[in-house]
Specification:
By secondary structure, the chain is an alpha/beta fold. It contains 6 helices and 16 strands. A 6-stranded mixed β-sheet has the order 5-4-3-2-1-14.
Length: 266
């Protein structure tokens, strides 16, 4: 069995070190193979402008935040997927980083920017990929990627068992949609959302919490509340995600008819 979980909390805007220490403290005694953290876990979310974001973002190669997490994962034999404000040259990406024992394994840059993110971040430029984590294969998507079924489908077609979904969700129906992503692709999903309200000089945003793990039938394995810290680990059977049969005569991937799907690319 594979142990996967999330840590839901409310990052404090601009308090990178404080947010990191809270994560490390919460996970110190959490046995798991893989933990998913929210989108932009260290910086907070509601940036005034690109300059404010640039001052808080970090380069992956030189990030002291990620160095701490690499060491932590090495001590715990753990993998973590976390949201991260990534600075790369003159570009800034809303990224998610897969960290393993002592190393950065993979980086994903959010493809579909939401609302005011478009004024701060550059759109992602890394193709969707699936990477191994111990016995599992995982794909990564970030927050608003949920509304584009193509993202989850491509990762599932690349044989992802688990979709890791760091999020700062503000709309009320996103979590329900992720249950459908599980069902239509026969995969596990882990949505790690934040909660709380960020009050900034230019306005405020309230996040919905309710982090969750869903199974390949679209059922909830666990769900957090809307307004408090929560860390959960569940055991999952990866074979459930690898069996794409819905009936004795129907396999949801083998029955696909891609020759009729060309309009999706127009």
């Amino acid at each position: 069995m594979f142990k996967v979980g999330y840590f839901q909390f409310a990052p404090r805007f601009g308090r990178v070190r404080e947010n990191l220490e809270k994560i490390l403290s919460a996970l110190a005694h959490t046995p798991a193979d893989l933990i998913v953290l929210p989108e932009l876990s260290f910086t907070g979310y509601y940036f005034r402008d690109r300059k404010e974001l640039y001052d808080l973002a970090e380069n992956i190669e030189t990030s002291s935040t990620l160095e701490c997490l690499k060491d932590f994962c090495l001590q715990k034999e753990l993998y973590i997927v976390t949201g991260f404000a990534e600075k790369s040259g003159d570009k800034i990406f809303n990224s998610a980083v897969l960290i393993g024992p002592g190393k950065i394994v993979h980086t994903y840059r959010k493809l579909h920017l939401f609302n005011t993110e478009k004024g701060c971040f550059d759109p992602g430029n890394i193709p969707l990929e699936v990477v191994p984590v111990k016995d599992a294969k995982i794909g990564i998507m970030i927050c608003f990627d949920w509304i584009f079924p193509e993202v989850a489908r491509i990762l599932a077609l690349k044989e992802a068992d688990i979709l890791c979904h760091p999020s700062n969700l503000v709309l009320s129906y996103c979590q329900r949609a992720m249950r459908i992503r599980s069902l239509e692709n026969s995969v596990f999903t882990v949505t790690a959302n934040r909660y709380g309200t960020e009050k900034r000089p230019h306005g405020e945003l309230t996040f919905t919490g309710q982090s969750q793990i869903t199974d390949p039938n679209g059922s909830l394995l666990t769900k957090a509340g809307p307004d408090k810290d929560d860390w959960v680990v569940v055991e999952i059977d990866l074979d459930q995600a690898r069996d794409k049969r819905r009936t004795a005569k129907n396999d949801i991937f083998k029955d696909r008819r891609p020759e009729f799907y060309g309009d999706l690319l127009k």
